[in-house]
Amino acid sequence: MSEFSARVFELVRKIPQGCVSTYGDIAFAAGKPRGARIVGYALHRNNDPENTPCHRVVFKDGSLADGYVFGGKDVQRVLLEKEGVIFTPDGKVDMKKCRFVMV
DNA sequence: TGTGTGACGATCG
DNA sequence: GCGATCGCCACAC
């Protein structure tokens, strides 16, 4: 468990309900602008699923991960919709309204 | 200790 | 416009 992954989890926990963030943004905020994959890897190994809403983390274009997700992208989508996240007809998250930017 | 891999992302063809 | 490939870097084996 590196400082980077710990920071990833911390940032993900900060995403408010009804918002999403991207792997790239989290990686950037955690100090690795090119570390998008590492973020995914870290979440895959998810140390703290109770407090880490990894379903609020999506691709840069708003689409969801395709197969390795906890219960499938459909489940992920439903969870997000329940939280108030807007989806486009494309089946992607409306990044314009729901993208949470780390500051 | 070294090698392979992967919830990504961007660029090339 | 879409598909395939390369690059990134931490972590597991």
Which key phrases capture this entry?
globular, single chain, 42% helix, mainly alpha, DNA-binding, two-stranded parallel ribbon
Helix share bin: 40-55%
Most strands sheet: 2 strands, parallel
Low-confidence stretches: none
Report, as a whole number of angstroms, the end-to-end distance.
24 Å
Q: In order across it, which strands form the biggest sheet? A: 1-2
- Please state the overall shape, judged from the principal axes of the Cα atoms: globular
Verbal overview:
The protein has 103 residues and is mainly α. It is built from five helices and two strands, in the order H-E-H-H-E-H-H. A two-stranded parallel ribbon has the order 1-2. The mean pLDDT is 90. The chain binds a DNA duplex (13 and 13 nucleotides) through helix 2, helix 3 and strand 2.
